[in-house]
Amino acid sequence: MTVEEIRLQNLLALVADFGSAAEVARRADTSASYLSQIITRVPSRTGKARDVGAKLARKLEAACGKHEGWLDVAHTGEIQSSNAPVKPQSFAPSNVSKAPPRPVTTWDNEDELDPANYVFIPRLNVQAACGTAGKVMWEIDEKGQRNAFRRGWAERIGINPASCATIVAEGDSMEERIHEGDSLVVDCSQKTILHDKIYALCWRGEFYVKQLKKLSGGGLQLYSTNRNRDDIDIAPDHLDELEIIGRVIAVSGAL
Prior knowledge:
By secondary structure, the chain is an alpha+beta fold.
C-alpha cells in the first residue's frame, strides 16, 4: 500500500471511532466537505484523486489524540485492506434527523444518462504557464469527462451549459460560503464585475475564487469571507492585471 492509501484507511478508522466524518472534521477544525471528497475519491482539478496530505494528516492526528505519524503507518487489525469495500460514511451531524432516502444515479460515462433529464458541464483547468513568470493559464476542458447536473435544477438557477465550467474549491478563504472541496459552477460569459458577487479570477500569477467589492476611487477588493484570511486591494491603475474568468453562480458540496 502507498502512504496515500494507508492515510485513507486510517482516516476511515478515525471516522468509525468518532462516529462520523463531521465529528472528525469538527475536532480537527477542518471542512467535513473536504474530508468527504477525500473518502469518496473526488478528483482535484489536476485529475488526481484527493488524498490526505502531510499537513492535514498531522492536524487530524493532533485533534484525534494520535501520535505524530500515526496516519502514515498501517495498523494491522484496526483498518480494512485497501482491497476491501469501503463502508459508506455519514457526513451529517448525529443530531440532525435523516431525510427519507432518494435514488442515487451512478454512472461511468455521460452516454448512460438521459440528456432530457441532465445537462453536462465541462471542467475548468487552471495551471501555471511554463516559461512565463507570473502567468496563469486556464481553459475549458471540452474533451474530458463532463459533470452531470439535473436539468430541472440547472434551469431553476439559470445555468447555460454552453458558457459554464466546473471547478473544485481549494483552501478555506471563502468559508462559510464556500468550503474546500465544494464543486463550483462558473459562468464564463459573466465577466462584468458586480459588487459583492463571487468570481473565479487570475491576479498576478495566482488563481482565486473571491467576492469582489468595488472601492471608492475605482479600485477593487478581493474579499475573503473567512475573516481569518487577508483581503487584497487592487488600485485602479493595476486593474489591467486582473483577469476575470467568470462569475460563480452555483455551489454544491457535502454537509
